[in-house]
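Progress against Task 2.4 (sequence-to-structure conversion) is shown through the following example record, which the project officer requested during the mid-term review.
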Amino acid sequence: MKAIITVMAMLVAPIGAASAQNVKSVAEADAALAKVAQDRAAINDEFAASERECYTRFFVNNCLDKAKEKRRVALADARAREVDAQHFKRADSVARRDADLAERNRKDAEEEALRAAQPPKPAKEEHAPAKPSSGPSLAEREAEHDAKVKRQEREDAANAAKRAANVEAFERKQAESLRRQQEVARKKAENDAKAKEAAERAEADKKKAEARQQPATPAQ
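Structure tokens generated for the chain above:
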């Protein structure tokens, strides 16, 4: 029974969380936020350990209620410190922004006052009209371009006619060469046929002459 009372007293006691305090600088606010993160982790770890311990006790529900209440109070304290630090950082950011805006407004006002105090600048002298370009004008360049295009078209047409004439002459030469080759082949064939015919006649005449020269066989 004494051990149970001791455990309950430990659960009810605070875990050392400090009350929310006003921070005085951004560095303190950052440190406070880091401490809150560490405290939250420690609170959750301690609650998990207390929860395991409660399940070994006789009055489990009562023990768990005490542990949950202790965690709630500790987390509320951590949240209060977190809100305080975040509020300071937001206020500091707004103050810095307002200070920057005020500084810019002050500089703008000073520059405006300096400009107003300075004597007006003399009017700029009008520039002399630009000298005409020594090169050809736009119309002249366009006319020259058109002339080049037309000249190129005429040259292309003349070259096309020359190419067509060359093709026609080449085709005529090819046809004439083919005709000559065919004529040569025809004459060669005729000559070969005549030579063969003459050789055959000569052979026939030779055989006839040999036959006449053989003596006749006497009758028995």
